[in-house]
Write a structure and sequence with these properties.
226 residues; alpha+beta; four-stranded antiparallel beta sheet; 9 strands; globular
């Protein structure tokens, strides 16, 4: 488990949870599921296990920062209020082997961690024509990394815009490349010489957002700081 301070009093916690898939499989077997029903239950169990692990990770981050408070998650945005009345907003994400939490004093935030490959088929289905064309212009050796990055940023944007309860397919087709700009994407993947390759996170500050990407972890985030 690692904690990372982000600009403007925000924090990210990331942990590798190797047993997430195994725990979900055990839960599914205990339920006596099989075939298609078993696969559905396994996916549900994986999500439930990941969600619980994210909340455990939040508690560890709260304890480390001494900002404890009960999570309020009946509606978006998720948040907790400290004993002195200070409000922290929360965004969660989990994948096969990772869990991540972002807390911030800003309301509109989003984090996404994705350690599965995003295929050409998925990109063709969910990416905008502009994004798909941009990807195909890149060297083949870089496309897998860029597909994953754009997918994470799309998920972050959905959460930051608080559209998680709307039509997912429609929201994923939102052109995040157009929203953020190619220059920002280049900075996030360390193309620009000004970036320090030894830093764990590449952060780009725009007029209204902080966009971050981890160099060695499949994790990105967006903070709307206005």
């Amino acid at each position: 488990m690692q904690f990372y301070p982000i600009e403007h009093h925000s924090w990210v916690a990331i942990d590798i949870h190797h047993n997430l898939g195994e725990q979900a499989t055990l839960l599914t077997h205990k339920a006596g599921s099989s075939n298609k029903v078993g696969l559905t239950n396994k996916a549900a169990s994986t999500h439930k296990t990941g969600s619980m692990y994210c909340r455990q990770l939040l508690k560890k981050l709260q304890q480390a920062l001494n900002v404890t408070g009960e999570l309020m998650e009946a509606n978006f945005p998720y948040h907790f209020i400290t004993a002195d009345g200070y409000t922290w907003y929360v965004s969660f994400s989990h994948s096969r082997q990772h869990a991540a939490v972002l807390i911030s004093p800003y309301t509109n935030i989003g984090i996404d961690v994705e350690d599965s490959a995003i295929s050409h088929h998925v990109a063709a289905r969910f990416f905008s024509p502009h994004e798909y064309q941009w990807l195909n212009q890149k060297p083949a050796v870089n496309q897998a990394v860029l597909r994953n990055l754009l997918w994470r940023l799309k998920e972050c944007s959905i959460k930051a815009h608080q559209n998680a309860d709307k039509q997912l397919i429609k929201e994923l087709k939102h052109d995040v490349l157009d929203e953020l700009g190619e220059e920002v994407i280049n900075q996030l993947i360390g193309i620009d010489e000004i970036n320090d390759k030894d830093k764990p996170i590449q952060c780009v500050q725009t007029d209204a957002k902080i966009i971050g990407n981890f160099n060695s972890k499949p994790c990105s985030f967006i903070i709307v700081n206005r």
